[in-house]
Amino acid sequence: MSSRFGATMETLGIDEELICAVCRDVFVEPVTLPCGHNYCEECVSQLKKSATAGLGNRSRQAHYTCPLCLAPCAAGLRLNRNVALRNIIEKYRHKTAEGVSCSVCKGQQKAEAEKSCVTCGESYCTLHIMPHLENDFFRQHVLVNPTENTERLCKKHGKELELYCKSDSTALCVFCMIPAESGHLEGHDVVRITEVLNTMREECQVNLRKIRENLLHIQTSHMKLDQTASNSKNSIEQQRQSFLHFLQKVKLFIDIEEAAWEKKFSVDVQLESSLHRQSEEKLQQMQKSLEDAECAFNNAVANQDPLTLVQVLKNTSWDHILDSDFCSSKIHEVMQSMSAFQKGLRGKIPVLRPLHNVFQVEEILLDPKTAHAQLKISRSHSAVCAMKEIIIKDQNSERFKQSFNVLGIASFSSGRHYWEVTVRGLPTWALGLALNSISREPPGCKLGSNEKSWSLSYSRSRNQFCAQHNLLVFSFMVNRTPEKIGLFLDVESGILAFYDANVIECLYTFYCSFKEPVYPAFCPRFHIDVEYVADKMQIQNGTIK
């Protein structure tokens, strides 16, 4: 310790006893242990916490040791504050009411600074200046008398910056102009810093205008951005409201159409019944006329009276039923009226024809080149079955190596598509879409387990569906065993929906964003721990009637 520093310490009556052995700083609210050593109250609390950690209700029985003499001290013992030591510290801190405070001292009452370091930009009290006086690392630091603003001092000489080099745009002190120090300033225009005050003020004004212009530009950009976001939100909301309004109209229209066509079909049933009754009456009248004529001719033949035979043969009321074309023409007339009525029932509802066309079953063919080696593809390329033995011997880069997958031949990059797949009898299966770039090898080849495929799988043993895409997994139970699944794809809207095609019920819908063409994907054996079955996964190619 330097003699100056020691004298100051001696004057104040302060020595190493002011330093806490735990935090190595001036005491804050010192307390005394039974062994006589002093520590900050907070430091002792930390020692207690370390000793009682994990003891629970037995924490009061724990002991901690004094860091200096290792004497034990009960954690539950209440320690007294060292008032005398605290007063000495207060005297040290209040040596003077004015002046620069130490930047390092803790608490609200900080000691007066002994020196300020221009290099560090901090001020230090008598205690905290010690490292700068004793440590070689700080030998090159420039110490000056305490000052609030070290930025006004030369970092090399610790003197006030009074000069200005126009060539370097640098502030200098008078010591910087000493010949031994000013070699690099030869030929430079150096003036007193007060002489360039107006020039620098004007330069600051120019920079200030630029800053304000940029701030105004930023504020304008914020306003434009907020306005754009507001307009975008309003536009989205208008589109949402318009779309919901349109859907409400569609729902209302469908309800009206349903009621109207229900009534029409009811009327058609009545008309059909009436037409059938009328046709039946005509046939019965024809039958009665023929039976009456038959009876009359039988009686005439049985009667030996020639006059009766003449009267029967001359009866013109039976001429029309004796015509050879009478029965065939009448029956044809009746059947034609029934046929015309039935033909009128076969037509589709014209206004719903576009919706009907959307759900035309797409023709999907399986691509054998992508099929797992144990998948048997039908000759029509519309059915697939998982086999115990290897069916396909040749290997290629497109073939799935572990998962029992096969892709469709054709891909979809636009439009709406619908196809149906029979899964009756399969204990576990998966259907969906996949990009052509999906991995053919584990771990990324299982449908739905990656970002390049979307799938709906089913497990009969769990009676459970599972919709999966990458990290998204959603499982749900069903109260029936699915037999036929319909898949609806709208590429532009990013919709992939799965239906129970037998009961026309939506099972799950993905909302996607397709960046490249997608292929229909099929897996007749999703979980490999189930038994092999002879049932096939059959694609329904054709039109829904």
From TrEMBL:
Domain B30.2/SPRY: 343-537
Keyword vocabulary terms for this entry: Coiled coil, Immunity, Innate immunity, Metal-binding, Zinc, Zinc-finger
PROSITE patterns tied to this protein: B302_SPRY (PS50188), ZF_BBOX (PS50119), ZF_RING_1 (PS00518), ZF_RING_2 (PS50089)
One matching Pfam family: zf-RING_UBOX
Tagged with keyword Membrane: no
Coiled-coil region list: 276-303
Residue ranges occupied by any RING-type domain in the UniProt entry: 20-69
InterPro entries per record: B30.2/SPRY, B30.2/SPRY_sf, Butyrophylin_SPRY, ConA-like_dom_sf, E3_ubiq-ligase_TRIM/RNF, SPRY_dom, Znf-RING_euk, Znf_B-box
Highest taxon above the source species: Eukaryota
GO MF annotations in UniProt: zinc ion binding
All residue ranges annotated as the B box-type domain in the record: 149-193
Keyword field contains Membrane: no
An example Gene Ontology biological process: innate immune response
PANTHER family per the UniProt record, alphabetical: B-BOX DOMAIN CONTAINING, RING-TYPE DOMAIN-CONTAINING PROTEIN
Protein name: E3 ubiquitin-protein ligase Midline-1-like
Source species: Erpetoichthys calabaricus (Rope fish)
